[in-house]
Amino acid sequence: DAKTTQPNSMESNEEEPVHLPCNHSTISGTDYIHWYRQLPSQGPEYVIHGLTSNVNNRMASLAIAEDRKSSTLILHRATLRDAAVYYCILRDGEAQKLVFGQGTRLTINP
Amino acid sequence: DAGVIQSPRHEVTEMGQEVTLRCKPISGHNSLFWYRQTMMRGLELLIYFNNNVPIDDSGMPEDRFSAKMPNASFSTLKIQPSEPRDSAVYFCASRGLAVNTGELFFGEGSRLTVL
User: Fold this and answer.
1) CA end-to-end span of chain B, whole Å?
2) Tens of pLDDT, residues B4-48
3) Is the pLDDT reported for residue A110 higher than 80?
4) Which among A44, A96, A101 has CB closest to B106?
């Protein structure tokens, strides 16, 4: 599986936007970029995914660099409930499994 | 929908005992995944099934671990005999038919403590 690199931790303030970076310089043309998050004492939950174009959903936005070697998960207005570990994962279009890295622990200050 | 249901939520057992963890995937989902999470190793994929058939068990730590999926609505992960290093949170997840883009839905996990 292609590797992703994320900062170990980030901190932001409530009601401010948060930009979570992910580097994936070895991404292949068929790799989808997936983001999951894990709230304390819960299982991971899906956030968003994309291939080439930027994506928006009710939870977040995903900005993908033109060369696809990096991406950014954007939380437009963070709340305390967004405090979690965020995982950026590459999944080959043929592969069926998701391999999680260490993720970014996001702290939201009130 | 009730989501992915795992049982037990917590289990404390003694070394050498058999442990069975259970999972009920979301109805209609055809893929099921077992993960293990520890502080040291993070989230590790143990095994996954498609249409009740094991596809990749390369993450299963050793022969003490076994997983079965006798039907589309039930799976078990068994550890026999259990050891203290098996202490972890075990997650089950399921996914529907959209393989390339379908999201995984995770259960709340089974926290295992082996004394």
Assistant:
1) 36
2) 999 999 999 999 999 999 999 999 998 999 999 999 999 999 999
3) yes
4) A44
What average pLDDT is seen over chain B? 93
User: Coil, strand, or helix at residue A22?
Assistant: strand
The alpha-carbon gap from A35 to the nearest alpha carbon of chain B, in Å, equals 10
Give the pair of three-digit tokens for residue B47: 């095994």
Residue B94 near residue A42 (C-beta atoms within 8 A): no
Residue range B40-59: mean pLDDT, rounded = 93
Per-residue buried b or exposed e for A18-40, using 16+ beta carbons within 10 Å of the residue's own CB: bebebbbeebeeebbbbbbbbee
Question: Among partner residues B4, B43, B99, which is closest to A100 by beta-carbon distance?
Answer: B43
Neighbours of B85 (CB within 10 A): 11
Q: Which residues of A touch B109 (CB under 8 A)?
A: 42-43
Rounded CA separation A21/A85 (Å) = 13
pLDDT at A2: 62
Q: Which residues make beta-bridge pairs with B21?
A: B77
- What tens digit of pLDDT does each residue of A50-72 get? 999 999 999 999 999 999 999 99
The answer to whether A71 and A32 have CB atoms below 8 angstroms apart is: no
